[in-house]
Amino acid sequence: MSAAAQAAPVAAPRARNAISGMQRRRRRTAWLFLSPMLLVLALVAGWPLLRTVYFAFTDATLFDIAFHELVGAQNFAFLASDPDWWAAVRNTLIFATASVAIETLLGLVIALTLNARLRGRGPLRAAMLIPWAIPTVVSAQMWGWMLHDQYGVINAVLLSLGVIATPWAWVADPSLALWSVVAVDVWKTTPFMALLILAALQLVPRDVYEAARIDGLGPVGIFVRITLPLIRPALMVAVLFRALDALRVFDLMYVLTGNSPSTASMSVYARQQLVDFQDVGMGSAAATFLALVVAASAALIIVAGRVRFDTAGR
Amino acid sequence: MPRPLRRAMGRLGLWLLVAVIVVYTVFPFYWAIVSSLKGGQALFGTELLPRDPQWSNYAELFRQQPFGRNILNSVFVAGSVVLVSLVLASGAAYALGRIRFRGRVPLLMVILSVSMFPQVAVLSGMFELIRWLGLYNNLLGLTLSYLIFTLPFTVWVLTTFMRELPQELEEAAMVDGATPFVTITRVFLPLMAPAMATAGLLAFIAAWNEFLFALTFTLTNEMRTVPVAIALISGASAFELPWGRIMAASVIVTVPLILLVLVFQRRIVEGLTAGAVKG
């Protein structure tokens, strides 16, 4: 392209024609190469999503999904009158807010620690990837065992330290269970957060810190005035991704506490309606509502956090 | 406090913090390994090292259920979905990363939002689709449905990498009269190999760990993938979970992942930061 542009003054019209012809061909090529991916995505994402929204307004059952009638907003009315649903909404919002807040703070602490000039940062980073790589189901089972009320190692340690007098039922006690789920999620996802923040920290040039130190800023001042503003864009993207991930949580609750209403998330509720109660209409209505909550949260975080994606190209 | 002493204290504090972080991240998995090697009553004790390590939990695991088959299922599903995703995504990434056309940025945003979408929001539509295709309780149904999260992700990572490659490469190929197809297969693919390895690895891990679809779209023990098998391990009664066997299963599925992570950690961190955050 640059060669053609240089030749422009000599033979302007022909060169322009050649360029636009080539560009047209390249654009056609682009769509040609995109089409298989877009077709598959439309099949596995677009179509099922549309059908789910449609089913939300029907009385379809899993027994015979094809045989159904439109029932208007009836499913949503049922949903609004079901206390279990509102418990699920509350659980999901508490879980997402608490886990993302704790993960961000802990992730910042860990990332700042690892960003200090340390020997053996490689092995450390590898150790941090372990919780990230472990399947959620496995981490739920591992923690379920550690949090076991009779034989769990956590009760054993806390009892021997005298922190608690009698074993706590971390997972079975409805007032504790949701916080246990948050704790497991924090364990699994904080390292991921820390690695993303660390990657952003490593892009901050060292001489900025030197300059700040010469200007007499203390460690806290440096963090608040220099580090935080510089890593803020990356931090906000990480928070956005984690928040959207937390809002759709399913595996953790399902494996740790089953369908128990004291921890059930909106995803757990929707799947219970759909599969266990065979009620496709209700399940779809709950799922549609969750999708709206996720979309609204995304919009809120993007606007409030002034998130920018690097899609504009260079 | 004299300066050297203060520095030493700071150093010590730092290392203490590091030690706490390592224990926090590594201990739960260590405890799973230890528990999986304890037989009988020892399981309910709290020794940090099993006094009399046994493999009985592992033997029991394969005897009580088709766990070997479950592992093969997971390998098949994750492997096939990675393969399909990489093929579809490399062409798409070429278009998105190398060609400027109208609608490119909105398209990227749509792809990103698909990857962030709650899986349960497509569950009933996907159920209908899978039944209609006759893929219920079939591993191919899982391969198909997993594309919803592996495909946007691989497209995103490959596009990011594709954009970094120098313009001159493509120009040289074009001057030589190469078609776009030849340019991709001969020029870009060899250069993209590391990025494809990263994207493939991350997609493999995501598919290996997936639970909701696998739980919903399979019915029989023989068709289950590993996460579902582990979640549904049960003992003689609902109140007596065979924790030793559950821990053994957890160790088996996690060890390969941890080995992969240790070998490719630099690559994984690169892929994650490219996929999620571009500083």
UniProtKB/TrEMBL annotation, chain B:
SUPFAM superfamilies linked: MetI-like
BP terms from Gene Ontology: transmembrane transport
Domain of life: Bacteria
Domain ABC transmembrane type-1: 71-264
Protein family: Belongs to the binding-protein-dependent transport system permease family.
Entry protein name: Sugar ABC transporter permease
Natural source organism: Falsiroseomonas bella
TM stretches of this protein: 12-33, 71-95, 107-127, 139-158, 187-208, 246-264
InterPro entries: BP-dep_ABC_trans_perm, MetI-like, MetI-like_sf
Gene Ontology CC: one annotated term: plasma membrane
Membrane topology: Multi-pass membrane protein
PROSITE patterns: ABC_TM1
Localisation: Cell membrane
Keywords tagged on the record: Cell membrane, Membrane, Transmembrane, Transmembrane helix, Transport
Predominant cellular place of this UniProt entry's protein: membrane
